[in-house]
Design goal:
single chain; 480 residues; mainly alpha; CBS-domain; Tetracycline Repressor, domain 2; three-stranded mixed β-sheet; 22 helices; globular
Length: 480
């Protein structure tokens, strides 16, 4: 945690340094172009100072990792973002695009000429090109594929053929295979001839002559055993592997559970077709988490904080409209009991408490159910237990906190019947909230919809409407 905080501080420091250099460049540029009375010597000095500052900025950016540059781009206004992008796109453009968020990636690509897109793509590996292609214009996509050799083109097309969210869509082809019947001396000689190993390579993939996966050979085995050792004597013959159609979420859970760094990916015939690395899994989980957070608050897509006002407003329309409809339903529920509220004004002050507590209870249940669905922990064998558990928790909390708010209502208004209405209303609405918290995400999931999207909005409508209806209905029955 401390390292993460320090990293964030370092990133913020880098951002501040880049902004300072750009501000100096703007000041110098203004002096050169707006001070008409400058002598030729003054103009030359200012121009040289501007070029020197630009060189410092380019040098600073050139020393940064693409992920750090992506962070800087995401935190700059549009004009300054374009200035930085123009300085770095020729050397690190492809890597920066892959490290950037989806919305920033789209914006940068939309402003790139066709030839620049081709130049950027030519510096990428096949799996990286496959990640980038969905964001490219159609004409650029065709030209990028045409520019690849047959092997890379087949790899890219293979990756694009897998549905989003599967292991096949995430895997890459940067892996080293060896045979089980060769010695370590042969393996070491082969690695020496390759001349380069990725930082992610911690194990070699053992296959037979038909490319069937046989096992894994940890790199450290090559360092501690003699050169005449056979691969099959030291390999892991029952490795953890994934099929191409496995879900990426399941793979991420396995990586976390077993502490994996990389794992082989096989097809239906158990042939080795790719490799899944922890970096790809982490990127997938980060993107998934960000999308879920946005969906929970009703944003249709990721939003650039520096995007135009009109575009940001349109991104927020859909669920705001749904919220308005739900609010009208809740308001009409209150309207049914106008006479009751007029006769006992205290109800108007107390009824929001019932609705708010119900909403919080339901959201807690929804969060647990969605997590259970994501981890494949919910099935027909345990559904009844989960339903009974959540209802029981709702009833217990309703009795406990209903008694608390009932006591406060009694102390404030000195009406025992009003306190009783508060207690019973709290119990019943938390019962309804628990039911809704279980069935809303499960129903959306059964219909093939993402339960994260819309669950909270639907829940709020139910807990508000039912909370008002239960509370005011009981008040009408018991108090008037």
């Amino acid at each position: 945690m401390r390292d993460e905080l320090q990293h964030q501080k370092n990133l913020q420091l880098l951002l501040n340094q880049v902004i300072e250099l750009m501000n100096k460049k703007e000041v110098l540029n203004t002096l050169v172009h707006k001070q008409e009375q400058n002598t030729p010597r003054q103009t030359l000095i200012q121009s040289l100072a501007e070029r020197e500052n630009l060189a410092h900025l380019r040098q600073k950016l050139g020393s940064l990792h693409p992920a750090d540059i992506a962070f800087i781009l995401e935190n700059l206004p549009l004009k300054q973002r374009k200035m930085v992008w123009d300085l770095v796109k020729d050397q690190k453009g492809g890597a920066i695009l892959l490290e950037s968020s989806e919305v920033i990636r789209k914006n940068l690509i939309s402003e790139m000429p066709h030839q620049e897109i081709l130049d950027v793509a030519q510096r990428l590996e096949s799996d990286e090109i496959a990640d980038l292609l969905p964001y490219l214009p159609k004409e650029s996509t065709l030209d990028v594929l045409t520019s690849l050799d047959k092997r890379n083109r087949e790899q890219v097309q293979s990756l694009l053929g897998f549905p989003e969210g599967t292991v096949g869509a995430l895997m890459d082809f940067d892996m080293i295979t060896v045979r089980e019947d060769v010695t370590f001396e042969v393996v070491l000689r082969y690695l020496h001839l390759r001349g380069h190993l990725s930082e992610q390579v911690t194990q070699l993939f053992v296959v037979d002559r038909t490319n069937i996966l046989k096992g894994l050979l940890p790199i450290q085995e090559l360092l501690v055993r003699s050169e005449d050792t056979l691969v099959k004597q030291s390999m892991i013959d029952q490795p953890i592997y994934f099929y191409t159609d496995d879900t990426a979420r399941e793979a991420a859970q396995a990586f976390e559970r077993y502490g994996l760094i990389s794992a082989p990916v096989v097809n239906a015939h158990h042939e080795l077709v790719g490799c899944l690395g922890v970096d790809m899994v982490m990127d997938f989980m980060h993107e998934t988490t960000q999308k879920e957070l946005l969906n929970q608050v009703g944003l249709q897509e990721e939003e650039d904080i520096f995007s135009p006002v009109w575009k940001s407003a349109r991104n927020r329309w859909a669920w705001l409209g749904v919220n308005i409809i739900m609010a009208f339903i809740a308001s009409r529920t209150i309207g049914l009991f106008e006479n009751t509220i007029e006769q006992l004004v205290a109800l108007a002050a107390l009824m929001p408490i019932i609705a708010n507590i119900g909403g919080n209870t339901g959201n807690q249940t929804i969060a647990l159910i969605i997590r259970g669905l994501a981890l494949n922990q919910i099935g027909t064998n345990n559904f009844r237990y989960l339903l009974f558990k959540e209802i029981s928790i709702g009833l217990i909390n309703g009795l406990l906190w209903g008694s608390v708010v009932g006591l406060f209502a009694y102390l404030l208004y000195q009406q025992p019947s009003l306190a009783l209405v508060m207690v019973v209303s709290m119990i019943l609405n938390l019962f309804v909230a628990s039911l809704a918290g279980v069935f809303i995400p499960l129903t959306l999931h059964r219909l093939g919809r993402d339960p994260v999207i819309g669950s909270s909005v639907i829940l709020t409508a139910i807990t508000d409407s039912m909370g008002f209806f239960i509370f005011l209905g009981l008040a009408t029955w018991l108090l008037l």
